[in-house]
Amino acid sequence: MSTIHVTIIDREGISHVLEAPTDMNMNVMELCKSAELPVEGTCGGMAMCASCHCYVEEEAPGTLPEKSDDEEDMLDEAFHVEDNSRLGCQLQLKDDMEGLVIRLAPVG
Q1: N or C terminus of the chain: which is more exposed, having fewer CB within 10 Å?
Q2: In sequence order, which residues have a C-beta less than 8 Å from that of residue 12 and are 6 or more positions away?
């Protein structure tokens, strides 16, 4: 099994360094849920609810996919959107994401 390290900063500012498998087709939302971090993922990863809204704090250049139209549309309706906003469900974990740092967005 191939793993990378992803840091998730929770809403209290606490950093959680997680080992993330890259061979299980998981996304950032599922990683957060597996670590029992407060991410709902109400729509099940369909980019329809923004309950996995997060901010990309650090990434290696070119490692993240462009936002899809569905992700852009959902972020247009979300609260607290910033330039680095993403939906965790749309970020599939891949080997070149080693060292990714994500901060959970405020709720509501």
Answers
A1: C
A2: none
Spatial separation of the C-alpha atoms in residues 79 and 106, rounded to whole Å: 8
Give this prediction's pTM. Answer: 0.94
pLDDT tens column, 1-45: 699 999 999 999 999 999 999 999 999 999 999 999 999 999 999
Measured in Å, how far apart are the chain's first and last C-alpha atoms?
A: 37
Kindly report, residue by residue over 46-84, the tens digit of the pLDDT: 999 999 999 999 987 667 999 999 999 999 999 999 999
Q: Is the dihedral of CA 83, 40, 13, 57 positive or negative?
A: negative
**Mind listing the domains of the chain with CATH numbers?**
19-62+81-96 (3.10.20.30)
Contact 28, 89 (CB under 8 A): yes
